[in-house]
Design goal:
The protein is mainly α. Helix content is 71%, strand content 0%. The chain is globular, with a radius of gyration of 20 Å.
Length: 364
Amino acid sequence: MTPAAPDRLSPTHPLPTRSATLTTVETLAIGTIGGLLFWWTELPGGLISGAMIAVAIAAIAGRPLAMPMLLSHVVLMTLGLSLGSMVSPQMLRNIADYPVTIAALALSTFGATFGSSYYLRRVHGWDRASALLAGSPGALSQIILLATEKNADVPGIAVVQTLRVIILTAALPLLLNLLGLAPHAHLTLRAPPATPLSFAILAVAAVAVSLLLRWLKFPASWMFGAMLASGVLHGAGWVEGGLPLWGYALALIGIGTLIGTRFARISGRTLADHVLAAIGSFGVAIAISAVFVAVLVLTTSAKLSDLIVAFSPGAMDAMLALALTLHIDPIFVGAHHLARFVFVSIATPGIVHLFGNDDDGLDD
């Protein structure tokens, strides 16, 4: 079985330099137009969700959209720099609440995984291994590799995982805005623009720490490395300020565009075949996560908006980008999504090994 071939999930041969450049320009142009359109209509989180939706639609329509690896790393480090510049003493004091909420997140993650898996098996007839891998939130690259090893339904898993991220990134800003927990779409900075010298120091530190974390095989090293470097430099008072407004806007559009390109690896037919399974399993995962959020709101001092984004079963880059644009505590959200990534990366292979056989009798 070679499930990746018909759905563009496997790496393709490198494009000629001119073709690659034109593809990148087209991808960025579509993302920029979509982001600016959503921002102009004053939708919450419009720069991110607009870029993401525009690129996703074009990719589904058949455009071979992509961003080169180097540019993707720059976008992720820019996001990390911006998140780190928001560090404040109050955020650091709130770390006392983290052990409780991270423990609850672990339970929520496993509950959402098994709940979504049960739905996919009972309603859509998926095999156990595919259902467990599709229901596991986050760590998409690791999930796809494990799915390939287990001979699971790679295209279906990719659709479920990707649609979950797209739906969350588009819907969360609207939900938080309706609840009065997030600002409107006006683009504002939390810190004044950094001086050229401060920005140069930030950039060098971000690259150095990101490379170190990458060498240590730390997850999401480009984003977290820049965030750590920026957070330490700002928290210690060694630098002040962040990106200028135009740079901040480009970072948000870049993240949305990067997320949208995930659909370039999925054919329209495969998407249509699995969209109901994706939406249904997403609903189950959100319902289970919402129960844990409600309990924590009643029993801890954590803010509802922080908990909603931290417990949303989406990709780290997308959720941290939303934290940035919606003025939500990036340390809280980053710590929880990193913890989820670790949970999923460590536990999923064991879960699939123990519960992923269709002949183990556990469905009876």
